[in-house]
Amino acid sequence: MTDLCSPTFAELAASLGFSCQEAGGLVEVRDPSALENWTLPVLEVTIVLGAVLALVLAVVRLRRHGDPTTLVLWFGATAYLFVIEPPLYFPAAFGIEEHVDTMFAHNVFTVEFLWGRLPLYIVAIYPLMATLAFEIVRMLGVFRRYGVLVGAVCAGFVHHAFYEIFDHLGPQLRWWHWAGTNPVNQPMFDAVPLPSVVVFAALWPMSLALCVQFFVGRHVDRGRHFSGLELVWRTVVIGLLASLGTFVLPLPATVSGMGSTTVRAVVYAVELVVVTVVGVVVLVRRWVRLRRGEPDVPPYTNRFVQVYGVVYLVVMAFLWVTALPEFFRAVDGVTSTGDPVGNLWYTLACFVVAALCVAGTLTVPQATSDTTPVHARAHAA
């Protein structure tokens, strides 16, 4: 689809080792052994497997326990993806090329969609990461105790920790490359645009969690049942409103920083600090209260999230360790192969936060039975 190969995308594709003009079609399957490097299929399997398991278990939870929350979360995240990503891949086709040039390019993976723009694992990472973050917050009883807004902020904080581990490694391993000169990506935080660090890692999952809990989760907690049609339209609305939230929440930085990258950076940082402070204070308080044996909400446990959260962190730690030799040989933030490196100290902090979040769910009283319907627990409470 050469007519959609903008100069920026073609340049990014070449830096990743493939040609825009030869990048598949609507769907393309490649030999995993022929990808850019061995880390690509490892990442792909980890994320896609996790997303599939999350979907299967969300369906099981709906059928067995009458709780559609995680299923709506999964499809709401996917709906968000298909609203927000295509215009970023094809700004000319959507008539926004005068305002938004190509921001980034993914490398080609085993399964690709949209002429080399959308790897399958990217479709999968949205619902997987959203599930990990939302369910960790839910297991600590934040939504029930503090409400929709505070719970959503905490979900954004947890998502940020998990996502940034991946976000700061990808450019070095050629999972994707950013268009560093694109004004929309400014300012850069080493290899990662600060807008990505704040908006895509924290604010969009916050927006999604708020919509899911507002339209479905809080009602399920009170014992309400939804028909299939109700779940469908609510899921669509969640995807659309979460996309709108991704536009609204960064507005302070977008508007105040229109004439200054420095101002934009400061406002983005302030937004992230607010999310972090709320997340740390609330999650620690919840963990301490539950550890003291003072439960004020019905216990809830998601074994999949507890286990796969650990799996994700172990795989990412392994990939980071293998990347460290080249990372330390980098000069001025660029490796010998010309790939930018992320911020190691920030990544380590995110590793610590993510690990503590998972550990927190494992060290509080667990639900005695995963077969107890949510509405029954709500009634008992």
Mind explaining what this structure looks like?
There is one protein chain. This protein is mostly helical and 381 residues long. The chain has one domain (39-86, 123-380). 63% of the residues lie in helices and 5% in strands. The strands form three sheets. Strands 1-3-4 form a three-stranded antiparallel beta sheet. A hairpin with a 4-residue loop joins strand 3 (111-113) and strand 4 (118-119). Helix 4 (120-139) crosses helix 11 (303-328). The longest helix is centred in the C-terminal third of the chain and has 31 residues, at 261-291. The radius of gyration is 21 Å and the shape is globular. Residues 376-381 have low confidence and may be disordered.
How much of the residues is beta strand, in percent? under 5%
Q: Give helix % range.
A: 55-70%
- In the predicted model, the low-confidence regions spanning at least 5 consecutive residues are 376-381
Whole-number count of domains: 1
Entry keywords:
381 residues, mainly alpha, two-stranded antiparallel ribbon, disordered C terminus
Outline of the structure:
The protein is mostly helical and 381 residues long. It has 13 helices and seven strands. It has one domain.
